[in-house]
Amino acid sequence: MQVNPDGLKRILIGRPFPTSASAHERLDKVRGLAIFASDPISSNAYATEAIMHVLIVLGSGALAMTMPIALGIAALIALVCTSYVQTIHHYPHGGGAYSVAKDNLGQHVALFAAAALMTDYVLTVSVSVAAGIRAITSAFPPLVELRLPLAIAAVLLIAWINLRGVRESGTVFAFPTYAFVAGVLVTILLGLSRMYGLFGLPPLDAHPVVLPASVAIDPWSLAYTWLLLRAFAAGCTALTGIEAISNGVTAFRKPEARNAATTMVWMAVIAMTLFIGISWLATHMALIPTDEGESILSQMTNGVSENLSGGRVLYFWVQAFTALILLLAANTGYQDFPRLGFFLARDGYMPRWMQNRGDRLVYSSGILLLTLIAVVVLVAFRAEEIRMLPLYAIGVMISFTLSQAGMVVLWGKVSRLKPGETLRTEVTTLHHERNVGWKRILNATGALVTGVVLVVITATKFLEGAWIIALLIPLFVWSFLAIHRHYGRVADMLSTNEREATLDSLTDVADVVIVPIPDVHRGTLRALKYAKKLSQNVRAVAIITDDDQQARILRRWARFPELTKDEEIHLINYDYRDIIDRLVEYIIEVSTEEYPNQLVTVVVPEFIPRNAIERLLHNQTANMLRRRLHAEPNIVVIDIHYHV
Amino acid sequence: MQVNPDGLKRILIGRPFPTSASAHERLDKVRGLAIFASDPISSNAYATEAIMHVLIVLGSGALAMTMPIALGIAALIALVCTSYVQTIHHYPHGGGAYSVAKDNLGQHVALFAAAALMTDYVLTVSVSVAAGIRAITSAFPPLVELRLPLAIAAVLLIAWINLRGVRESGTVFAFPTYAFVAGVLVTILLGLSRMYGLFGLPPLDAHPVVLPASVAIDPWSLAYTWLLLRAFAAGCTALTGIEAISNGVTAFRKPEARNAATTMVWMAVIAMTLFIGISWLATHMALIPTDEGESILSQMTNGVSENLSGGRVLYFWVQAFTALILLLAANTGYQDFPRLGFFLARDGYMPRWMQNRGDRLVYSSGILLLTLIAVVVLVAFRAEEIRMLPLYAIGVMISFTLSQAGMVVLWGKVSRLKPGETLRTEVTTLHHERNVGWKRILNATGALVTGVVLVVITATKFLEGAWIIALLIPLFVWSFLAIHRHYGRVADMLSTNEREATLDSLTDVADVVIVPIPDVHRGTLRALKYAKKLSQNVRAVAIITDDDQQARILRRWARFPELTKDEEIHLINYDYRDIIDRLVEYIIEVSTEEYPNQLVTVVVPEFIPRNAIERLLHNQTANMLRRRLHAEPNIVVIDIHYHV
Predict the structure, then answer these.
(1) Residue A467 burial by CB count (10 A; 0-12/13-18/19+): exposed, middle or buried?
(2) Residue B620, Cα to own-chain centre: how many angstroms?
(3) What dotted CATH number matches B507-643?
């Protein structure tokens, strides 16, 4: 009747891997780009739309501002990537914002960066999956009602794959990224060609919809500037995931830092190209963003591939690989979150089990925790990615700012090194370098710009949802510190550093064993026999609620002098029904009055039924007793089982 | 942070009663009638309507058949009551169908009767509560949508009162029964007076509605007879609860049997009077039953009290006390079900905890079980009593038939007794009697008639829901027998009857103690110190997953020779992640290979966090280990707690 949970686990997760199998296959640049770039590149599926979504309140005319904003964001991508190339070279063992901030700005600032990243990793999963599902429902509109269950199913699927332990290097993972990039590039080039009537292609059907402004705003007013800032902030989701490579430098083939840096540059170039291309085409095709209906990318591909032989193939290619690259982007959350969780757990700021690897050598607890939170977020926002976007990008901007501020401090240390001198920090080794001034200015500019963007994002998106993140991040930091304090206390308590104090602290064992017996039968005799082995001073205790019971116990007791001769039997007459109450009272009395500050042992006979149904037929006295005595520090409960 | 469940229990249930407080206050006839008769008398709230509900398919003309059917049922009531008076005199210690059948027809038949009664007690609660709520919604129609939540709330209220332990004798309980009887009698008399223009009262407004037949049936056809049988079967719900007095003879003042018998007769007279009165008036006022709308009783009282000063008072009086007496009737289910559960548990046919009384000396488990099932039934039937009625009355008819068949057998024993001779059965004592033949014929007639009615009810209501009961009763009997077999097996296993076999069966205790240690700290040292008290042969076992851990453990181990000098430390290198697996494997290996058929002790250091949140921060290794070893018969797990 019993389900073997282990058997189920084997089927779901597969057989365990030996720990020694964890040596890593390294990534070349082609695959590295595909793996790490899926997150920032996939942002193109929604970043342009996010900008247009803000501008549209001023009517379709205002959509012309999409392009300048997109250029600004592209410039920001270039700046951040350049800054991160410097980080990669100085933190070849992984230079996530947490490590860099910890190394240069102190633990508290690092925790702040970690909290920010944690929120962003969760949103990477929720937003990417929601957008991926939207790519599917844009192509198959009847599925739109199933958005939430589909999104949850997708998260569970990704979680399951990760629990089984995928190697980051699977070539199969590289394909969707390149297929998406190729598909979108073809769409953009085809769109440009058709727009300008090149290559004899039919011109694009123009069906410009003119939407009036839903609010009237003077273009020279503060309100207008505010709106532009909001649109800019919305587009900043394009930057999420850029930092991923800096975390994963060690995943690359040698020379790791150099390969990672090159990949970073390529990633930036591709992301910027697609972003600018999509923004340009969407604006010039006069596309209109809709609330959770067909996405801008889908509208664009639809328009470009219209009236072309093979056009449908292109359309479904782009939609399919949009969905796939977005799911792949969600998967990067599954790489980053458990890894950061591991670092935090190792340093004592998250539950220690976050650093335990499962049977398949992955951080199973982190994966499960992320899945839980991501599903909660999806349900809360009904899997509508446009509603989640205001929460997104704050975390990543905080981590950009802090990581680059850390670099500024690092340059200070480097500038004090003479040629040939090295400085070993906790995480990395620094050498003398040239042009430190310029490099420092670059990171300072990066920190400053992303800092300003952070303020803009937080301010403009505050009421739309950013307040949630503004609330959560300090809460997380507070939790990290509380957890750290707890582990500190436990470590102090368990510490064996002072030999004598340790020995003194070990409680003595009282020479008494209490055996509660409801009756004298083979089960209780078995417990008595065990108890006699433990101590010469065994006390059988029976709570007597009626005379028949007392007579029966005494009669049977007398029949087994081998076991019962020397032992006392304590009969406690009790006029209430809850005998556990009385038993607990007696045991605590013995513990505190007769043997204070010693370990008192209670041997409890426990009947073990064969299955859950049989369990319903028996009192749970042993279980209840154990639970009741659980909180008593000086009482040891031993269950002596008897099976049918 | 932790809720004290005991504190909550105290608030809900009240302080415990001492067992010695269970001596019973005895009932006089007036209160005895009120308590025991509430169930059969309250049936008048729906029994007439149940008949009319069947007849109405033939149109309003067919309702004239209500009266003859009602007379037949009244005759049945008289017959059953007379039979039961004989049962009461021969089973003064309680003559429920279970006891009588067990004493005369054997255990298996008795279980059948018990199963039948169990289903009926559940339905007593569900049907009475549903009908009681309908009395309220008939007076306040807007509440009709809240029927189900109101019904559930009523069941929970009754359950709560019973868990607190009401004495059956509360005078306050007597009032609704008499108030209901008085109200209905006044209504009937007033109705008759107005119908015949007596006492200068205004004649009744006649607004006869003529409904056509929804099916055409020849009055001489078999189909017509079938319909009349169905109507008769429907009316038989009036008989439910009649047997209650026979169960509760001991609740009466001395002479118990005589007082109980007198009360039984009065109950029958009142029930018959009301039933015939309501049926007569409902037919002559040409009332039409509606599906779950206003009840017939409400229509009747409304009509009779119309255009009379004070008429509204009468109407609300009757409705209010209909609701109250029905809730009181539901309460009888709460008296009967746990009591029968106690008998069955005592004989080993239901879970043994059904015979345990709670703090307030009531059978709490039976009360909770009944509540659970009654709520499920209410939800399943959406608290519509008309839909539940087809399930009702089958159980009670089975118990009537079996109890009276038992009496027929009993008269056989009595007839063999010579004057002055007595016969002690398991439950009662029999003496020589006169006129045994006639008395036997009476019970035989009762058994025969109720047997026939049982067949009629089952057949006519089969498709409407009686099949559920026809399925459940054998299922219950089967469960009773399975439970009995299980307890028999356990009792054999625990039996100490054979001294030598018992002593041989007690497993020896192996002289070895295994202490799994993840690390050497105060917690594990505490466990080691305890283990040393148990045995000279202590084995500390560490599962080593990396070299640092091994070096750390050995270094710390060497620092405490007081505790560790003589003990072996077993280091087990393990290349997988799930160390519990390896630990369990090792322990089972030691148990089965080194010490087969002996009790091997495992001492597990367990960290006890201060609260649930702190628990999240720690591995549950000790818990998991205990769970994994739970099924091993020869392994004893001892948790040595360490608290912050």
Answers:
(1) middle
(2) 39
(3) 3.40.50.620
What per-residue confidence (pLDDT) applies to B252?
83
Mean pLDDT per 10-residue run, chain A (644 residues)?
A: 56 69 70 83 86 82 86 91 89 82 90 91 90 83 85 91 67 82 91 79 66 68 84 86 82 85 92 91 82 79 80 86 87 86 89 78 83 91 82 87 92 88 84 87 90 88 86 92 91 84 83 89 89 88 87 87 74 82 91 90 88 80 85 87 80
Please provide the CATH number assigned to the domain covering B27-487. Answer: 1.20.1740.10
DSSP string covering A471-529: HHHHHHHHHHHHHHHHHHHHHHHH--SSHHHHHHHSPEEEEEEEEE-SS-SHHHHHHHH
Token pair in block for residue B18: 């001492």
- Cβ neighbors of A424 (< 8 A, separation 6 or more) are A430
Asked if residue B241 has pLDDT above 70, the reply is: yes
> Which tokens go with A217?
């705003």
Under an 8 A CB cutoff, do B641 and A618 touch? no
Cβ atoms B289, B49 nearer than 8 A: yes
| B596 touching chain A per CB within 8 A | no
Does pLDDT of B2 surpass 50?
no
List C-alpha distances in Å: B486 to A23, A416, B55, B115, B490.
Answer: 54, 83, 49, 19, 6
**What's the pLDDT at B1?**
36
* C-alpha torsion A119→A121→A125→A126, nearest 10: 10
CA distance B608 to B615: 8
Asked if residues A392 and A240 have their Cβ atoms less than 8 Å apart, the reply is yes
- Scanning B525-544 for CB atoms below 8 A from A yields 525-526, 529-530, 533-534
Please check the confidence at residue B540 and state whether its pLDDT lies above 70: yes
DSSP A27: B
In angstroms, the separation between the Cα of residue B28 and the nearest Cα of chain A is 29
Minimal CA separation from B559 to chain A, in Å:
8
Does A415 reach chain B within 8 Å, measured CB to CB? no
* Ramachandran sector of residue B529 (left: φ over 0; alpha: ψ -120 to 50; beta: rest): alpha
Confidence check on the interface: ipTM exceeds 0.85, yes or no: no
Task: Record the tokens describing residue A303, joined without a space.
Answer: 């328009």
Positive or negative, the CA dihedral A289, A294, A295, A299 is negative
SS percent in chain B: helix, strand, coil, step 5: 70, 10, 25
Q: State the span(s) of chain A assigned CATH 3.40.50.620.
A: 507-643
Q: Which DSSP helix (H) or strand (E) runs through B600?
A: strand B598-608
Window 78-137 of B: residues touching A by CB (8 A cutoff) are: none
Q: What 3-state DSSP class applies to B601?
A: strand
d(CA B120, CA B43): 14
Looking at the partner chain, which of B506, B530, B556 has a beta carbon nearest the beta carbon of A636?
B530
- Give me the pLDDT at residue B359, please: 67
- CA-based radius of gyration for chain A: 33
Q: Where are the alpha helices (DSSP H) in A97-236?
A: 97-104, 107-139, 147-164, 171-195, 222-235
A91/B63 Cα distance (integer angstroms): 94
Q: Each residue of B344-378: pLDDT tens digit?
A: 988 899 888 888 777 666 778 888 899 999 999 88
C-alpha to C-alpha distances, A85 to A217, A425, A446, B178, B535, nearest whole angstrom: 42, 20, 12, 92, 63
Q: For B137, which DSSP code?
A: H
Q: Both tokens of residue A579? A: 């005998």
CA-nearest of A644, A581, A578 to A617 is: A644
Residue ranges matching CATH 1.20.1740.10 in chain B: 27-487
Which residues are registered as beta bridge partners of A573?
A544
* Residue B249 DSSP code: G
Amino acid at B225: T
Question: What does the angle CA A388 – CA A390 – CA A392 come to, to the nearest 5 degrees?
Answer: 75
